[in-house]
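To close the section, here is one more complete example, presented without commentary so you can practise reading it yourself. The ligand is adenosine-5'-diphosphate.
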Amino acid sequence: MAKLKLEYIWLDGYTPVAGLRGKTKIVEGDPDSFTLEDCPMWGFDGSSTKQAEGSASDCLLKPVALFPDSSRKNGFVVMTEVLLPDGSPHPSNTRATIMDDPDAWFGFEQEYFFYQDGAPLGFPEGGFPAPQGPYYTGVGYSSVGDVARQIVEEHLDLCLEAGINHEGINAEVAKGQWEFQIFGKGSKNCADQMWAARYFLLRAAEKYGIDVEFHCKPLRGAYDDPLDWNGSGMHCNFSTKHLREVGGEDYFKKLMDAFSKYREEHIAVYGPDNHLRLTGLHETQSIDQFSYGVGDRGASIRVPHSFVNNDYKGYLEDRRPNSSGDPYAIASRILQTIDTVPTE
Ligand code: ADP
Ligand code: MN
Ligand code: MN
Ligand code: MN
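Output:
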C-alpha cells in the first residue's frame, strides 16, 4: 500500500466559460492496480465556486474518469461531475445530461495562446512582434523557440503518460499561439480527455509563470489591419458508425441540411464571443452563415477530400467551435443534430 495523491478536478459555476478547479485527496492504495472504482465520492464548498449559497454550500464530486499524473509521485487526476447534496446533477454539470454514443468518434483541435504579463508570449513590451507568417509550424528561437516549446513538450508527455489520446502539436499562426489535438470515442470520453488535457496544460505552464489564454479572440484589430491576429478555434472532427461505414452522398446532403437548420443551436454552444472570430476571414465562415465545402477552410464544415473519394464515408470537420467552448456541449450538439437525420 502507498499514499496516493488524487487530484479531484471539476468545472466550476462561472459563466459563460467554466473554470477548472482541483484539490488533493490522499488515499491508501496500490498505484499499479488503482482504478476509477477505487475513487471515493468527495465534496467541496460550492459557495466559493459560484455553485452554492453560503448557507447550504456542500456540493458533491462524483469521479467519472481517472488519469495517472506523472508529475507527482503516486499521483492521479480524477475528473469528476458536480452533484447537489441529494445526488442529482448540479446545473453547472453539463456532462451529466449530454447525448452520448460510444460509436461516435471526435477529434478536437484545441488552439490557445500562452500569455505572460498580460501579453502573448514573445510579444515585446508594449509593442508587436513581426507580423504573422513565420509562426505557424515554425522553427527557430525567434519564431517559436522560447519556453513555449518546453511547455508543449512537457504537456505532451503528461498527456501520453495519463493515457490521453493526444494526437499532435503544432505552433499556430499568431505569435505565442499553439494547438494540440485530442481524439476520443464517445462524447463523454473524448471531452473528459480534453478537459484533463486542458488541466495538464494549465498545470505545466504554472511553474514557468505563464498563463494559458483560451479566449477565441484575445487580440483584436480592424479586419484590414496587418496587426489583426488570428483567433483561436477548437475544430471538431466527428464521425458516427453510419458515417464511417455507410455514408453516401444523399445521406451527407441531408445531414448538411440539418446542420444548416440548427445553425443557431450549434453557435449557442460553440463558445462565447465567437462573432469576433467567425468573421469570414482568417479561414472562417461568418457566424450568421452556414456552408460546407470539400477541402474548404473558409466553410463552416470542411469535407475532407478523402470523404468524397470514399463514397461520402469518413469524418467531417466542424470549424466553428472555439477555443473556450465546452467539449461536452459541442459533441452533444453535433450528435443531437445527426440524430434528426434518418439513416435508412
Ligand atoms: P487540420 O489541422 O488539417 O484541420 P488536424 O490534423 O489538426 O487537422 O486534426 C484532425 C483531427 O481529426 C485529429 O484530431 C484526428 O483525431 C481527427 N480524426 C481523424 N479521423 C477521424 C474520424 N474518423 N472521426 C473523428 N475524428 C477523426
Ligand atoms: Mn489542426
Ligand atoms: Mn489550427
Ligand atoms: Mn482543423
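Once you have examined the C-alpha cells, check your reading against these statements. The first strand starts at residue 2 and ends at 11. The chain has a mean pLDDT of 95.
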